[in-house]
Amino acid sequence: MADVVFEDLSGTVTSGSSNPYDALIESCHDDAARYAKHRESRNQKQKEKILSEEFSGASIDPFLHKLVNPDRYPGFRDERNCLVFWARPPKSLRELINSVQKRLVTTAPNLWLMPLDNLHMTALEITFSLTSPEVEKFVQTIEPKIPEITDYPYSHRARLVKPILSYDNAAIALSFEPAAGEGLAKDRRPEEDDFTYHHLRRDLYTLSRTTGVEVVSRYVVPSAHLTVARFITQKDLSTTEDEAPNPDKVKALIDKLGEINSWLQQDYWPREGESIKAGGQWIVGEEKGLDCRKGTLWYGGGETVRLGKGF
After folding, report:
1. Residue 17 in contact with residue 234, Cβ under 8 Å?
2. Contact 176, 161 (CB under 8 A)
3. 0.85 exceeded by the pTM?
4. Helices 247-268 and 91-104 sit at what angle, rounded to 10 degrees?
5. Cα distances (angstroms) measured from residue 208 to each of 118, 123, 144, 204, 284
């Protein structure tokens, strides 16, 4: 079973359920403010770590570093095969992320940017870092439920709002909070927001387990995010690749992240009596259902087993 991580939340509870998302939901008491607290606390903690004198630089993903430097690592291949269910962002959200990425590279031009067509949010990770034949066994086991799982958001519509950048010394992601009645469109009732993204993930886990497949996700956290950029060099934080972090460059990046988040809050967060700007909310399943994906998909690649029905 996945490790359940409740970092920065005010306490955990012991759930009698074998579903780790039940414990997450119980810990948060269906209170959107708790998800907000987790996100705010995590960003503040990461900011303090990165700005501290003890900060030693970015954490470089060795696999991605080798993939983007084929001249230095000829023939390198990422052999880590996975099986997942991804939520794919709609066009309006991809356009927002494109704008975010353009703003990021004005200060950190060496970031690796997630290609817009590869953007995804992991709704459920079934398994990871296996061989292709091992993953195929998981696919065969769960195959009878794949249509139901990939189509599930069509009738169970979880809404996400309040995008901001969350970050650490390895990557930058656009994260969301579960909606709680704010900025509702005329065709959506307030009680529909009671079914959150984490309830969706709970149900996907349950549906998967009915096939007998063992879900071996790396972790479960109370967040909803899409990775938009990763560090693949120290150059954006140091004067040269091999030097210690340059405090001015580090501060410049943190300031840029704060600037982008202020812009997102000003332009894309709900406001009383106003509709939410396109890109500022995401109803999971919009345009596309869930993407059951297998293969070497760590950076948005892989192969679609089935794409669910969107709305």
Report:
1. no
2. yes
3. yes
4. 150
5. 24, 12, 10, 6, 18
CA distance 174 to 224: 8
299 in Cβ contact with 67 (< 8 Å): yes
Distance (Å, whole) CA 235 – CA 240? 6
Q: Can you tell me the distance from the alpha carbon of 118 to that of 91, in angstroms, rounded to the nearest whole number?
A: 12
Q: Find the angle CA(147)-CA(152)-CA(156) to the nearest 5 degrees.
A: 170
Give the pLDDT of the chain (311 residues) as one tens digit per residue: 343 333 433 333 334 568 888 888 887 776 777 888 889 999 999 999 999 999 999 999 999 999 999 999 999 999 999 999 999 999 999 999 999 999 999 999 999 999 999 999 999 999 999 999 999 999 999 999 999 999 999 999 999 999 999 999 999 999 999 999 999 998 999 999 999 999 999 999 999 999 999 998 776 777 799 999 999 999 999 987 778 999 999 999 999 999 999 999 999 999 988 899 999 999 999 999 999 999 999 999 999 999 999 99
Q: Which amino acid, one-letter code, is at 132?
A: S
Q: Distance from CA of residue 49 to its chain's centroid? A: 21
Question: H or E stretch including 94?
Answer: helix 91-104
Q: Are 285 and 308 in contact (CB under 8 A)?
A: yes
As a whole number of Å, the CA-based R_g of the chain is: 20
Q: Where are the beta strands (DSSP E) in 96-218?
A: 112-113, 121-130, 159-167, 171-178
Token pair of 303, please? 């192969």
For residue 110, give the nearest of 248, 285, 233 by alpha carbon. 233
Going by their DSSP bridges, the two strands 159-167 and 219-220 should be labelled as unpaired
Interatomic CA distance for residues 156 and 164, integer angstroms: 24
